[in-house]
Amino acid sequence: MGIKRSIRIRVSGKTVSPMLVGIFFPVIYIPREMPDRDRLKMVLRHELTHYKSGDLLFKWAALFVNALHWFDPFAYFLSANINRSCEVACDMAVVRNMSEGEKKQYMKTILDLAEG
User: Fold this and answer.
1) 30-57 pLDDT per residue, tens
2) Is residue 109 within 8 Å of 17, Cβ to Cβ?
3) Coil, helix or strand for 32?
4) Which of 47, 56, 69, 100 is the most buried (most CB within 10 A)?
C-alpha cells in the first residue's frame, strides 16, 4: 500500500472491533475472534487505509475542537460528521478496485463486526 513505516499488530481479547491507535507509534488492534484470513486481510487493509489517509489526525483535531468548544452543539455535530466522513472515505478507498463479490464480502465483514 506504499506505507514505509512498520505498524505493529496486536491481538486482544478486550477489543471488540479492529482499530488503529497511535499517531507516532501506530498499532492495529484486532479482536481475538477474527474468523478467517480473507476477513483479516480486509480489516487490515481498512485500518492501513486510515493510517495512510491521516484520519487519526483529523479525528484528534475534531476532538480538540470539541473539547475547546464544549458548549457549542455545532462542535459535537462537526466531530461526529468528521468521524463518519473518515469512515466512509476509507471504505470507498478500500473497495475502489474490488470485484462485486469482494465488495459484498467486505460489507458483510463490516456488518458482522458492527453486530458483534
Assistant:
1) 988 876 888 899 999 999 999 999 999 9
2) no
3) coil
4) 47
The pTM of this model reads 0.87
Q: What is the pLDDT of residues 69-112, one digit of tens each?
A: 999 999 999 999 999 999 999 999 999 999 999 999 999 988 88
* End-to-end CA separation in angstroms for the chain: 28
Check: CB of residue 23 under 8 Å from CB of residue 56.
yes
Strand order in the sheet with 27-31: 8-12, 27-31, 19-21
Which of 7, 22, 25, 34 has the alpha carbon at shortest distance from 109? 34
